[in-house]
Amino acid sequence: MIDINLIRENPTLVKENMKKKFQDEKVGLVDEAYKLDKDYREVVTRASEIRSLRNKYSKEIGALMREGKRDEAEEIKAKVTSMAEELKDLEVKEEEYGKELKEIMMKIPNIIHDSVPIGKDDSENVEIQKYGDPVVPEYEIPYHADIIARFNGLDKEASGRTSGNGFYYLMGDIARLSSAMLSYARDFMIDKGFTYCIPPFMIRSDVVTGVMSFDEMDAMMYKIEGEDLYLIGTSEHSMIGKFKDQIVKEEELPITMTSYSPCFRKEVGAHGIEERGIYRVHQFEKQEMVVLCKPEEAMEWYDKMWSYTVELFRSLDIPVRTLECCSGDLADLKVKSCDVEAWSPRQQKYFEVGSCSTLGDAQARRLGIRAKGENGNYYVSTLNNTVLASTRAVIAFIENNYNEDGSINIPEALRPYMGGKDIIIPKK
Which residues bind ATP per the record (predicted)? Predict the structure, then answer.
């Protein structure tokens, strides 16, 4: 949610930002918000005046009664009664206007960073840099589900019976590999100075609407029937929610955390759920990083965060690249975002394995997260980034470490988490 002062002082900037994001249908919301804010402030001002007058008159009534001037006191009492009715109406309008204004403001997208390339959708995202040489071996790299099957490592038939499409059982060495990668990612981030956290896996609706737009919420989140609880789509949701309505000390900033969680997603949309493999599924595990910092430090942390993901994947012998997200591919709360993509030697192209975003103070405004500084309180900036998402990371790992005989190499960095193994051998 943007600062209302932007609507008051520079509505043209807000409208132009919407156009850069190809959300022309929302432009009218700016004028609606401007008028509603004006009406709201007038109501608040008048209500404040009445309360002040009421207090003044109450003192006068007491003084007149003590002096025996009952008639004059009764006249003022009549004024106070009349004012009470007006105040009651004003308070109803104040609540109504405030609610309507908040609803509109939460639909207005955040102001994107000047460096964000302008484009309609993810097809116009811009490659920034490649890390590692993308190799295509002379032998064939099978589809990842077929590689995993040789290890007896995937059972989607059983998960179909228990849970339906979009779920899976990982077994044996492949299950261990998935857990090993998550444990390695956890320790990697701890070594970077981040505090490890395991958060709640369900959150209330006021936290959900604080961390994402309504459209994202409908497309991603699973609602717990009969309760005000949602399954998290990423631990960022509950990690940011941890600070809801809190005022942190400025000297505690930056707050840097890395969190483990399962993630649950509807994956609604044209791309669909993957039938055989584990690329797009309803459930996976994830190591995330979250930062709360001073606004002026946000871009510095943004660059640090995505670079950590690149460093981690390169330590696992996986070539990656970074891709700058264009304006039309940015979710409404994001100021700037980039994807980290891993090389697929089978497909001979890159695919997304993580995303890094800075959201300015949008989430902090929605959730009431402020810092106490020398010159008063201010909203913090929030950032999040994928360290490692289990299923896609496993795909990237097995493809890039796959040998012609079907075995999979274990890079040195991961061996302590795999019982010292430097290679895993298929069962068939």
Answer: 265-267, 281-284, 352-355
